[in-house]
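Troubleshooting log. The previous structure file for this entry was overwritten by mistake, so regenerating from the original sequence record. Sequence copied from the archived sheet and checked twice against the printout by T.R.
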Amino acid sequence: MSASRQHRVAVLVLEGAKPLDVGIPAQVFTTRASMPYEVRVCGATPGLVTGGDGLAYYVAHGLDALEWADIVFVPGYRFPDRDDPPREVIDALIAAHGRGARLAAISTGAFALAATGLLDGRRATTHWHYTRALMARHPLVNVDENVLFVDEGSVLTSAGAASGIDLCLHILRGDLGVAASNHAARRLVAAPYRSGGQAQYVPHSVPEPQGERFSATRGWALHRLGDPLTLDILARQAGVSARTFSRRFVEETGYTPMQWVMRARIDLARELLERSERGVEQIAADVGLGTGANLRLHFQRILGTTPSEYRRTFTRGE
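Regenerated output below.
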């Protein structure tokens, strides 16, 4: 977009809106002489909106702001996996997109965009705690559970609150260029650039089980990640056929046994990178991945970063 024209930004505050998620786009794009943006904060109707975390918001605009805007931000909100936003909100988002507005979700705001159907067949992300819920509620969305943000052109999504800053700076960079984005980052005392593909660094990439039939087998495997672990070995430990084990394991965890083992190995590698001085080759051997090249390959695939970059993340502040 040209830097010479005024950009119109609407921040749509839904019931249960998270304060930081609301504040980020409102502050990044707030109207000032150096920034060609005008911001309107709106709700389903003008007036008081009950927020999350003990706060409420008084918004001056209703859904008419979406007719005016060319960028619409949807901040995260509480309990997004329970109910979709009101139908009139969904229709207004669809109409805004149809007129050419970009829709950008922060954190669980992705659920509101998914409810419009505009994310069907597209990549998207959300806060790591809700990625599986988003997958379950909107199976046509290609949810990437690791990245900081996803830019699909006219629809953009980001992970938890702080990554909303990264998304806003990414939009600024595209609209006004690197210098303006870096200036805004300095004003926010934020990192000037983190790519959308950078990992969220969720606490654990191994999913929480939905059942307990094979909990003993999972515990047994977690203590033997450095050893060979095949489907047959795991099934034998569980006392069932490989076919039965594989089918029921997927039902419990949402992952195949070998996908689960790989993620468990990556989690152990993360802990060793954080807490030890061991080299990548030694860690690869310790977690059952054999070589450093193999560890780097799967680390990049699952977390979107390298072991060395991951370790640096935990040593920069020391």
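The radius of gyration is 22 Å. Archived copy saved in two places this time.
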